[in-house]
Amino acid sequence: MNTVDTELHPAAPKDFIRAMIENDLNARRHAGVQTRFPPEPNGYLHLGHAKSICLNFGVAQEFSGACNLRFDDTNPLKESQEYVDSIRKDVRWMGFTWTNECYASDYFEQLYAFAEALIFAGKAYVDSQTMEEIRTNRGTLTKVGVDSPYRTRSVEENIALFRQMRDGQFADGAHVLRAKIDMAAANIVMRDPTLYRIRRATHHRTGNTWCIYPLYDFTHCISDSLEKITHSLCTLEFANNRELYDWVLESLNLFPSRQTEFARLSITRTILSKRKLIQLVEEKHVAGWDDPRMPTLSGMRRRGVPPEALRDFCQRIGVARAENTVDFSLLEFCIREHLNTTAPRAMAVLDPLKLIIENYPEGQVEWFDLPLTPDAPEKGVRRIPFSREIWIEREDFREDAPKKFFRLAPGQEVRLRCAYYITCKAVQKDENGNITALVCTYDPQSRGGGTPDNRKVKGTLHWVSASHATPITVRLYDHLFTQDDPDNVPDGQSFIDTINPASLVTVSALSDPTVAALKPGETVQFERLGYFCADADSTPEDTVFNRTATLKDTWAKMEKR
RNA sequence: AGGGGUGUAGCCAAGUUGGUAAGGCAACGGGUUUUGGUCCCGUCAUUCGUGGGUUCAAGUCCUCCCGCCCCUGCCA
User: Fold this and answer.
1) Could you tell me the distance in Å between the CA of residue A367 and the C1' of nucleotide B20?
2) How far is the CA of A23 from the C1' of B56 (A)?
3) Cα A503–Cα A506–Cα A510 angle in degrees, nearest 5
4) Residues A195, A198, A200, CA angle at the centre, nearest 5°?
5) What are the tens digits of pLDDT across the range A128-163?
6) For A401-412, how does the pLDDT look when each residue is reduced to its tens digit (9 = 90+)?
7) What is the ipTM score, two decimals?
8) Which value, in Å, is the radius of gyration of the alpha carbons in chain A?
9) Which runs of consecutive H residues, i.e. helices, occur in A252-357?
10) For position A1, what pLDDT does the model report?
11) pTM (2 decimals)?
């Protein structure tokens, strides 16, 4: 039922959910496992959903069960087909295939019938209080609620009213259908929860067929039950709703699906609230849901994050009931770990400094074969041109080199990766003292990057032949990081104000010709710079790269100290 | 007359019926390396929110206290 590479992803460790399911199976409480991933199509999927996807589909796979994709589309005001389409695409991209594609809206007729059944059983009534009255009469955390004056309506009156609600004979908000439970319940969810409201809105799937829509608490449990979901996994904030979930299914004598809650995912300095993500898109702080800086699945896909890395991440963070905030470095680690063995290498220079090899013949070009991935030589080679004038990274040269600086300095010999040893002989400057070029000599004996006398050099530089350089555009985008916890910003600030400005930097760069063959969506490692993914925005003249992940940089760390 | 959850290292997170604190990330040291990448080796909880108690033995059992999260939508 799935396409997950089990080689890369061994069985997940046993968390409390898997332990519970194993237990249920051993006790023969179920013949098999049936789960579901139930997003509301009111936004794009993000990393938090990835955790739920991996859990629900993963568990089904591990126990030879099935997992449905179900759209919880009961609020037409917020939902759209665009979101449905994006969710289907993102789940597939994550590497999972659903058993059935379901929609709560497909159950509207059945849901309505169950509502009438509740009325006939004397367990639901039509309330005609205003929204404010309902709120007031619900009581508070420490004060019990009071019964609605309409609570004692007869079954006949309730049925008549409810049918008129459906027929569109009342204005929005005039009445609601409520479960008759207990206005003094300690659990506020149980104080006669609203089951149906009148809402004249066009639904993206049912159009104007309905003017009443069921609410989550009534819909979700019944949907689970109709699909024979054995294990309904959801996040912790629904724990209070479990009592009502069970009440509805028991009252209607339906298949006893069971809800189990787990802690939602938080990642340091990362926005994972759908409300905030919608705000970023609507206020145009980003180009769209798939902006490469977005922590959405579509954004990360565009940034070059492989789905394998996300699955690995979800497995490593585990599943538990304690609130948690995972360090972003774990996600980066998972991305790097996957890309290290899969991404081809290329050389690029972000801030070019001209280097002239004075004893190299003018007009001569040599082609060197460099490994595509050094740790997997079988993956082949890339052909890189070398000539008299090349570009190196400006920060790879220091006139007054600190002691642990292994790179180029006056009089210093270093290696140009896979090409030659060079020695810096002179520094050219303009009238302002800015370095304009470096004059070097090369050792013809060191062709390929080694010498007959086995002379060692400490540094290896990356380079691009000046006459062959390919101009590219590089977006040094990161996640749209906030400076700290996005859900807890300083007084008087919006989380928007705390977005890291570094996530906006775009630079022009020069690359070796390897990138010319790259197609959008393909990721390379620009050696020592990081992983970069070719963007769909690219043109034949200008390839645009989004930074997928950085590399560890021990020199930068050391220098900072 | 509140209810429901939860606390194990900087961050995640395992810890069977009580038997002497897994693993990963991060960090730090060292080795290998034609990427200051990768890889390899090593260090990193005398203690599990706090105080009592039971026990030969407590992260696990009992109990007091404390912290944090969720719930008063006709959102999900």
Assistant:
1) 64
2) 34
3) 140
4) 140
5) 999 999 999 999 999 999 999 999 999 999 999 999
6) 998 999 999 999
7) 0.96
8) 31
9) 274-282, 297-303, 307-317, 328-342
10) 37
11) 0.95
